[in-house]
């Protein structure tokens, strides 16, 4: 295995500055992989591209959830050391000061020369595990039960991609996500390196990196903004069908000052027809959705149920919101639940 490189940072500001530099070189981190694969509900891979090439500013986003998550990281990692698979084992081992696992914090970003377009900012490196040999990755998360119930496995797909990304960079073969849910329920979910998922990550992140390098070259040519935006659109990633992409395009379009009229083409003509058809079908689809939801809710309420098991096909949960996690087993299914 190639010798790993470690880029250290003493403070959060230093870490943010180093991360920006890596992004500006077209390098991809673990959370970026989820965005590039279209699994980020809050950011489009197209926006990430324009930030990486320098057309859009890179912002240091922070909020209360992220703040608490950072400050609870040490607490969650500490609990993980005592966890034996059940809440009872956690409490007993903690009370008896019996640590059955250990992991060390890594205050550095990791780069693997074999994959020079990728980097990893992992929470901790597992050094002792009751069931596994060798080093692994420990990722800590704080999560709400509402967030967890949105996914069939209980783990958001973007987190799974993040873990597999880190395993690629480090070369380790296993990882765990230690989760504190609703501030009162602890769990630890194990993961093995998945060659199929990792192949997809490698392919799409390397493609993204090449597009960014091409975009950076275009940024240096001194074109007008109109010329530049057209040239960049030719090398940008394929837009995903998401609210995040729609929001970014709308946000950017608001900055257009001058009116401009252009002729469309056959592709845009077809898109206009499809848009109108979809728009007209929304009311019919919404009515049908309400009808089916009524059948499900009536069944659950009549049986005083909050969860319905669908065998191998998934589950239905109804607490604050109705969530239907259904997988058609006859037609295969997505292993990640998305």
Question: Topology, please?
Answer:
Elements: E1 5-8, H1 12-23, H2 30-36, H3 45-53, H4 64-80, H5 87-95, E2 102-105, E3 108-111, E4 124-128, E5 136-143, H6 145-148, H7 157-170, E6 174-181, E7 185-192, H8 195-219, H9 225-235, H10 243-253, H11 266-302, E8 307-309, E9 314-318, E10 322-326
Q: Brief description of this entry?
A:
The protein is of the alpha+beta class. Helix content is 46%, strand content 16%. The longest helix is centred in the last third of the chain and has 37 residues, at 266-302.
Explain how this protein is built:
- This protein is α+β, with helices and mostly antiparallel strands and 338 residues long.
- It folds into two domains: 5-199, Lambda Exonuclease, Chain A (Alpha-Beta Complex), CATH 3.90.320; 277-331, no CATH class.
- It is 46% helix and 16% strand.
- It contains eleven helices and ten strands.
- It has helices at residues 12-23, 30-36, 45-53, 64-80, 87-95, 145-148, 157-170, 195-219, 225-235, 243-253, 266-302, and strands at 5-8, 102-105, 108-111, 124-128, 136-143, 174-181, 185-192, 307-309, 314-318, 322-326.
- The strands form three sheets. A five-stranded mixed β-sheet has the order 2-4-5-6-7. Strands 8-9-10 form a three-stranded antiparallel β-sheet, with helices on one face. Strands 1-3 form a two-stranded antiparallel sheet.
- β4 (124-128) and β5 form a beta hairpin.
- It is globular, with a radius of gyration of 23 Å.
- The model is unreliable at 333-338 (pLDDT under 50).
